[in-house]
């Protein structure tokens, strides 16, 4: 389901309060933050690489770093901060390990893990054949387009917020999203099937 709750001002305020408690050593508050964000971050990371073992390691290192450096880190928008940090850490990991058997560039056009997509499919009015066709179309998108579709329609981020996460300008985000929707629309008689899938993905 569209997950706008993570960027809703009230929800973000709740996360910031938990973070403030974490900063002073409240482990329970920190665990709540980890539990609230782990699956979201994993699903996002899966749009960048199919090396899920590496992804789990990077996530673990990210949360350890947050805890160890908590007194030095100021966070205004918690979920957006984590999305951007995960993205940067994944790219850093591949730069530091160029001999890795699976890299972001190599997996850019490979399908995301089946369970990642299946767990998000709740729009039952689209028949099974159309679902499979749309899933294949999503999996075949170039890496950045797939990433933008996830951030826009699953996380509910605005163009400005996506630009911040991906370190792009707003127009580049708009252009990439437009190209992604054009690619997804091709081959479908009615665009509303694709949009319905995205909004309930």
Mean pLDDT: 75
The CATH fourth-level homologous superfamily of the largest domain: RNA polymerase sigma factor, region 2, helix turn helix motif
Instruction: Give the strand tally.
Output: 0
The number of helical runs is: 10
Radius of gyration: 17 Å
Q: CATH first level of the largest domain: which class?
A: Mainly Alpha
Largest sheet: none
Counting helices, strands and paired strands, the structural category is mainly alpha
Q: What is the ordering of alpha helices and beta strands?
A: HHHHHHHHHH
Strand content: under 5%
Give the assembly state of these chains.
single chain
**What is the percent of helical residues?**
55-70%
Instruction: Tell me the overall shape.
Output: globular
Fill in the CATH topology of the largest domain.
Answer: Rna Polymerase Sigma Factor, Chain: A
The figure for the number of domains is: 2
Parts with pLDDT < 50 across at least 5 consecutive residues:
1-5, 100-126, 189-193
- In CATH, the architecture of the largest domain is Orthogonal Bundle
What can you see in these coordinates?
- Belongs to the sigma-70 factor family. ECF subfamily.
- This is Sigma-70 family RNA polymerase sigma factor.
- Keywords: Sigma factor, Transcription, Transcription regulation.
- It comes from Arundinibacter roseus.
- The protein is mostly helical and 201 residues long.
- The protein is built from 10 helices and no strands.
């Amino acid at each position: 389901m569209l997950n706008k709750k993570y960027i809703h001002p009230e929800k973000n305020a709740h996360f910031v309060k938990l973070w403030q408690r974490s900063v002073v050593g409240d482990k329970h508050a920190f665990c709540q933050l980890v539990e609230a964000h782990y699956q979201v971050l994993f699903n996002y990371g899966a749009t960048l690489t199919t090396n899920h073992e590496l992804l789990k390691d990077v996530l673990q290192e990210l949360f350890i770093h947050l805890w160890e450096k908590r007194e030095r880190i100021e966070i205004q928008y918690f979920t957006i901060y984590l999305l951007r940090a995960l993205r940067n850490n994944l790219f850093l990991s591949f730069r530091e390990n160029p001999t890795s058997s699976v890299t972001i560039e190599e997996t850019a056009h490979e399908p995301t893990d089946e369970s990642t997509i299946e767990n998000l499919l709740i729009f039952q009015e689209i028949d099974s054949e159309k679902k499979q066709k749309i899933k294949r179309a999503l999996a075949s998108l170039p890496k950045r387009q797939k990433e933008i579709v996830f951030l826009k329609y699953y996380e509910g981020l605005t163009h400005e917020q996506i630009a911040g996460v991906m370190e792009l300008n707003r127009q580049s985000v708009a252009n990439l999203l437009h190209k992604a929707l054009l690619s997804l629309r091709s081959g479908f008689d009615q665009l509303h099937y694709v949009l319905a899938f995205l909004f309930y993905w």
